[in-house]
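Lab notebook page, bench 4
Experiment: in silico fold of construct C2
Operator: M.H.
Input chain length: 571 residues
Purpose: comparison with the prior construct
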Amino acid sequence: MLLLGQFSDSLWRAWLYVTHTRSLAIALGIGFAILAISLLVASRTRWGQAKPLTKCVVLSVLAHVWLLMYALGSRQVLPQGSPDGHETNMSVAFESDAAYLLPQVPSLDENLQESESKPTNDASENDFAPQPWERTAALEELPQPAALREALAKSDLTPPALLPVTEPTPLPPLPPPDSLADLLPDEPTRANPSVAQPAPSLNVANDTQPEQPARIASQAIDSPPPASVFPPAAMDNLAALDAQPVAADHSPILPPEMQLPADSRLPPEYQLRQASNRLQLATAYGADQDSEAAVEAGLAWLAAAQSSDGSWNAKQFGAGTETHALGESRYGTGDKADTGVSGLALLAFLSAGHTHVQGKHQKTVELGLSYLLRAQWSTGDLSGPKQIGQERGVLNARMYCHSIATLALAEAHVMTGDVVLRDSLMRAAQYSINAQDPRGGGWRYRPGDPGDLSQFGWQAMALKSVQRSGIRVPAVVTQRMLSFLDSCSTGNSKGLFTYRPQEGRPSETMTAEGFACRLLLDYPTSLAAQQESLKMIMDRRPGVGEDNVYFWYYATLALFQLQDQNWRDWN
């Protein structure tokens, strides 16, 4: 019985082998092909003609045999059972169609290194992650509203002919380094020579009540409030207000009896903006006739895009368009950010040497500054009258708009010394100081909230420009800023930066911003930390990876200060 069982098993395995493959189909095919040929030959004989019924039966059998051969020769889809008759388990996984319907979304966290910092126990992951409106969408995904398309159609965007490449002019020799002073000197920042008054001071916000506005030092208010600054109740009438043109050698905001004598002297870091040989001097820093022509063309477009009330309407040119870039809603953030967009436009004119008292675009700058003064709240907030309430889109843009507009006012005050600008600037700077987180040293969407590095960059630039204008910022405010900047640093040499302190991974965008802020605030940085920052920045220079204008902006600010080979490669 044992031998019979083994023989039966072997016979069964042989049959499975034959039927599992195409061997049986081939054998049957050959056999029935011979049979078909034989029947075809036989049909020519007397037998084939005498028995038509038999012939039909044979043809029917042949047809079924061919169908059987086709079935045995086809590859089967489902898995077969075990030859031994054992049970076979089979798993099935269902795939959702969503994986094929949704586009692959690029992440800002690509090519990043793991942070050495540990997350805090009292904060959720969503609180520290960069918000969707702070991420950068691909430029080609952004919509173009009708007003922008019409302006582009009317603009002459033909690039000028390229100039022949010339050898770069050697950089001027640097002055010998000064001896290091205390990190936070008590002496006030050097004031604008055109303002012959003691440097006014700002007050520090109360740690226990960060949202309560502090009063401005009384010695700072030497002139009455400007008539162009309206109470919040009158902000609805902004569109009906028009600024009056004035002569180039007078302030466009103050009445004639309050004018200051014209004084063209500027701080050393601002003199290049209005130098008669600007192009010749700028060549040493990487500029040429093509770049200057591009700047002039951009300023002409901005001047044409200015609204009649002096603002640049953010929504008119596509801000706040409801998109789902990066797969998340942006809540219409930016559609009411007129003061922020206007501040950015004014910074472009001021950087090119145009102010509200001189320059080809004097009238444009005059209207823009008058708009910012009218849009300022009595608390000093420059976020504008449109951004009221607690909507996500409003809340996300409000503090950005305030800091950018403050920076524009500060730069204009540094370059002109206009008294009315100083008064509004002091109230704006006081609002920023009151909004600082007294514990962490940063800024967020609401006054006093723990900060993030994205908000910090604009506030740092604004307060630094406030200092350059001759207004003294309390040392403790700068001390908190340096502490916050240090809390966001990570990496082996503390040269990389994260979006918020001790959380997340460092990115090239935050590293560029943190590095630029270190240089801006004269933060002592080791050579290893600087090299760590530069490596991440230069690894993502323009032309490598996706376009990221936010990253390019801060990287340009940082690298320009170095004026080394990294800057030349970047430029």
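Observations: The first strand starts at residue 489 and ends at 490. Residues 488-571 form one domain.
Next step: discuss at group meeting.
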